[in-house]
Amino acid sequence: MTETAGFWLPVVWALLAATAIFLYICLDGFDLGIGVLFLKEKDHDHRNLMVNTVAPVWDGNETWMIFGGAALYGVFLVAYGTILPALYLPVLFMLLALILRGVSFEFRFKAESPMSQFFWDWAFCGGSIIAAFMQGVILGTLVQGIKVENNVFIGSSFDWFSPFSLFCGLAVVIGYALLGATWLLWRCEGELHDTMRRVSFGLGALMLITIALVSAWTPMLHTTYMQHWLAMPQLALVAPVPVAVVVLAGVLFMGLRNPRSHLLPFVATLGLFFLCFSGLGINVWPYIVPPTITIWQASSPPESQTFLLVGTMFLLPLILSYTAYSYYVFRGKMSAGHHYH
Amino acid sequence: MFGLSALFLARFQFAFTVGFHIVFPAFSIGLAAYLAVLEGLWLKTGRSAYLDLFKYWLKVFSVVFGMGVVSGLVMSYEFGTNWSAFSQKAGPILGPMLAYEVMTAFFLEAGFLGVMMFGLNRVGKGLHFAATCMVSIGTLISMSWILSSNSWMQTPRGYRIDEATGRFLPADWWQIVFNPSFPYRLVHMGLAAFLCVAFIVAGVAGWHLLKARREGRQASEQVRLMFSMAMWMAAIVAPIQVLAGDTQGLNTLEYQPAKIAALEGDWESESRAPELLFGIPDMKNETTHFKIAIPYMGSLILTHSLNGKVPGLKDYPKEDRPYSPLLFFSFRIMIALGMLMVLVGLWSLYLRWKGKLYDTPLLHRVALFMSPAGFLALLCGWITTEVGRQPFTVYGLLRTSESVSPIALPNIATSMVAFVVVYFIVFAGGITILLRTFAEEPHPDQHGPAEDQPQRAAGTTQVSHQPQPDAGMAE
């Protein structure tokens, strides 16, 4: 009985944690993407409109990140205690960037002088880019592997600074920008909508290129990953992924070309994110701190995991339903222009 | 490097980031409750001044809450980056509690915040009030989990220690959550949050009352209303807080006597102990210099009996003593501020009875001067309880020096500098915006965050009025 609980609890929690991380990537992805797109869109009214599409929901989006930290601490202790010291600087930069960006939501609207307006606009844009980039670096470093001995990180402070993880950082910035652009083309009208539709073509192409490169690069990092790609049952799971990527990319570009299609590009981009995420997940499974610590080795005691699981079963559906309600309340197109003056 | 150790910097960094963070949740807890009360009174009485005040303080809430979220985000990762040894050992107990906090509170607050901020014209009064209440309840739930975890570190119960790994394993969750100091701490902190906001509200109202007087006009109905509400809070809650603090003191005496000895600057355990009004505790020579004492008061206050025996620091080995010089003063500043708040409350009662609440500029000036008093007292109280727990992270069981991460000094130094720079920018920005908001007098037909700056309007004006959201989603 305890044997099976010891096996299944971490598996259930790994799936739950993966779901939470994926929800975070989707939700905060598009609102970080909006910050990245400030690079492209300079018009003040348009920038306000872009931020307003997420103003009522961004707090909730970011909460998934806090949940990620807390859940990791609650159920995969060893992962929490080794990943964070190993990624000390990227995590630090990401948090500081998220702080600057988070307060800019309020501050840029309340800034009075053009100087402070300019400063908080840049804090929003720069904070979003750095946060997205660092999330990619964190992901890349994890996939690449962390040096651990006796459940303690033994690498150096700059192990994360590698071509692969930096490239992953770039890939995430591009991916989030595409999410943001397709979100905006769904939620806005007029000139902004048209700009975002145009931008999405380029970003979509860039994203496909980065997906291809990361996919080709990953198996070369570790022999275990290579074996994953060649062994059953992983092969059976992984094989359809590239095919599905191609299909979804087709859907994305079809949606972008059809002026009557508003929601489709966003959904297709989410689909692409799902494929990349699950592809990586299958790749590293069952390791939570590749290449040494599995989800079972990283687990907190079953008493802790059970205690948290009981509540999660009730709370997660509840959270999802009122989050959905909040999105529902603020649904529909946001229009620019004459409402402002 | 300057004789600084990684341990010291890790502690300093944690103190700095928590000290920065704690202000905003306390502000949010008190303010969310105030907003719920204002909206409830508006719905019940239909008096529009309540709604005006609601909208006025809602703008403040949006800034305060955002700063709380982002500074709290840091906390949830800092345990891992700086205190990984502590996290590994206490994680099986604290991890699930923090995860529950996020699930039961943070999501609730964040989920309904949007509706509360921008949704008044979208969802109807009843639902909007429900959203405001949800946000307020969320802040209270969050406080409960955090104080339960914090209290467990002070008075650990319901655990067993795994011999192989040295981890604390949960044995009885009920005892863990409802550990002996939790109820006292919860009440004390909750009241503190209410007082923080009461004095901020009083200070803002006091400033506008003084300004109106200087300009030879009467302050608006809204200003007088909020001043009156804040003074009721001071008159009622401040004395209750003194009682709550007193019972928490008794609880601490029972479970953490060394903390009491340190904050009183007492070295010898004795009956009929005096209470020191002033002194400079000296850890090295095991004495307190320049004492000014009231005979018997120490025993009377701490044990409620003249003959009560109070602990002395010499009862404990040197390496187990909390740092008395800091505690002695943080504790006294907190007490002094608490007493001042009680006096302000009583004075306001007297003036109210005389019908001069709005015509006594001295009271308004004192209220303005005391507006940060709640926060200062809160920070001093927090320093007292946390520094008093030292040199342990889990009281009596896990030392702070055994809790720190194996992080290189340069890493911690870098992050410390980065935190200080970013926090000061953010803090300065936030304070500027709050002061600018406060400088505006709340007035009839007050605009909330959704209307006064049209570009901000994520409310109804923003969205096309044609009922066409489905058309937009058409594929």
UniProtKB/TrEMBL annotation, chain A:
GO terms for molecular function: electron transfer activity; oxidoreductase activity, acting on diphenols and related substances as donors, oxygen as acceptor. Keywords: Cell membrane, Membrane, Transmembrane, Transmembrane helix. GO terms for cellular component: cytochrome complex; plasma membrane. The chain crosses the membrane at residues 12-39, 60-81, 119-144, 164-186, 198-217, 237-256, 263-288, 308-330. InterPro entries: Cyt-d_oxidase_su2. It is found in: Cell membrane. One of its GO terms (biological process) is aerobic electron transport chain. Belongs to the cytochrome ubiquinol oxidase subunit 2 family. PANTHER family: CYTOCHROME BD2 SUBUNIT II (PTHR43141:SF4). This is Cyanide insensitive terminal oxidase. It comes from Gluconobacter roseus NBRC 3990.
UniProtKB/TrEMBL annotation, chain B:
The gene is cioA. This is Cyanide insensitive terminal oxidase. Belongs to the cytochrome ubiquinol oxidase subunit 1 family. Residues 442-454 have a biased composition (Basic and acidic residues). It comes from Gluconobacter roseus NBRC 3990. InterPro entries: Cyt-d_ubiquinol_oxidase_su_1 (IPR002585). Pfam families: Cyt_bd_oxida_I (PF01654). It is found in: Cell inner membrane; Cell membrane. Signal peptide: none annotated. The lineage of its organism: Bacteria, Pseudomonadati, Pseudomonadota, Alphaproteobacteria, Acetobacterales. Residues 458-467 have a biased composition (Polar residues). It is a multi-pass membrane protein. One of its GO terms (biological process) is aerobic electron transport chain. GO terms for molecular function: electron transfer activity; heme binding; metal ion binding; oxidoreductase activity, acting on diphenols and related substances as donors, oxygen as acceptor. Keywords: Cell membrane, Electron transport, Heme, Iron, Membrane, Metal-binding, Transmembrane, Transmembrane helix, Transport.
